[in-house]
Amino acid sequence: MIIKTEHLIIRDFQKKDAAGLLEYLSHPRVNCFVGDRLYSEESALAYIFHSSEDMLRYAVCLREDDFIIGDVFALCEYTDTYSIGWHFNKHFEGKGLAYEAATGFLDYLFRDADARRVYGFVEDDNLRSKRLCERLGMRCEGCMKEFISFICHPDGTPRYEDTCIYAILNKEWKNNKNR
């Protein structure tokens, strides 16, 4: 699978992506991705080559040199509903690249994967991802208070996080694209 945008290529992972992947997933900045934390190139290679069959996971690379700057992923939960997410290297923030990648990926899901509905969970304090979802035309369908815990407080008790759900339907995506 290859998606080409103005500045990016979204493609299947390659072995050469391990070092770049390790760079941005060695310290996930969002607690919900603590489970994706990588500790070595070997763990990065395992991440690249051992995803579940229901998971679509692609490298986001700069078009000019094919350097990995992030990844996008989607889990098919029903025949036509996908839960999506993304990771991006902080050194490439503020340039519109996450928006460009997410737009290309949503186009792919709605056009080629026959998605009817796409949604994503975003921690309430993750302002960058919330803004990205809104720029993509996704609506906030609510915020679940103390929804889940990914980390613990220093005393070992769970730290529960407020989590928003953003979603968009295929017909809404197409309407937004036609404007």
Description:
- This protein is α+β, with helices and mostly antiparallel strands and 179 residues long.
- The chain has a single domain (2-177), classed as Aminopeptidase (3-Layer(aba) Sandwich).
- Helix content is 27%, strand content 36%.
- The chain is built from 5 helices and 8 strands.
- Strands 1-2-3-4-5-6-8-7 form an 8-stranded mixed beta sheet, with helices on both faces.
Blueprint of the fold:
Layout: E1 2-4, E2 8-11, H1 18-25, H2 41-49, E3 55-62, E4 68-76, E5 81-88, H3 97-111, E6 117-123, H4 127-135, E7 139-152, E8 158-169, H5 170-177
Parallel strand pairs: 5-6
Antiparallel strand pairs: 1-2, 2-3, 3-4, 4-5, 6-8, 7-8
Domain N-acetyltransferase: 8-172
Organism: Phocaeicola sartorii
GO molecular function, one term: acyltransferase activity, transferring groups other than amino-acyl groups
Kindly list the characteristics that best describe this protein.
alpha+beta, eight-stranded mixed β-sheet, acyltransferase activity, transferring groups other than amino-acyl groups, N-acetyltransferase domain-containing protein, N-acetyltransferase, globular, 5 helices, Acyl_CoA_acyltransferase, GNAT_dom, Aminopeptidase
- Rg, Å, rounded: 16 Å
Compute the number of strand runs. Answer: 8
Provide the CATH top-level class.
Alpha Beta
- How far apart the termini lie comes to 28 Å
Strand content: 35-45%
Full CATH superfamily name:
Gcn5-related N-acetyltransferase (GNAT)
Kindly state the percentage of residues in helix: 25-40%
- Integer count of domains: 1
Order of helices and strands: EEHHEEEHEHEEH
**Helical run tally:** 5
Summed over residues and divided by their number, the pLDDT gives a mean of 89
Identify low-pLDDT runs: none
Strand order of the largest sheet: 1-2-3-4-5-6-8-7
CATH architecture designation: 3-Layer(aba) Sandwich
Q: Could you name the CATH topology? A: Aminopeptidase
Shape: globular
Largest sheet: 8 strands, mixed
Which structural class do the helices and strands define?
Answer: alpha+beta
Protein name: N-acetyltransferase domain-containing protein
GO molecular function: acyltransferase activity, transferring groups other than amino-acyl groups
Pfam families: Acetyltransf_3
Domain N-acetyltransferase: 8-172
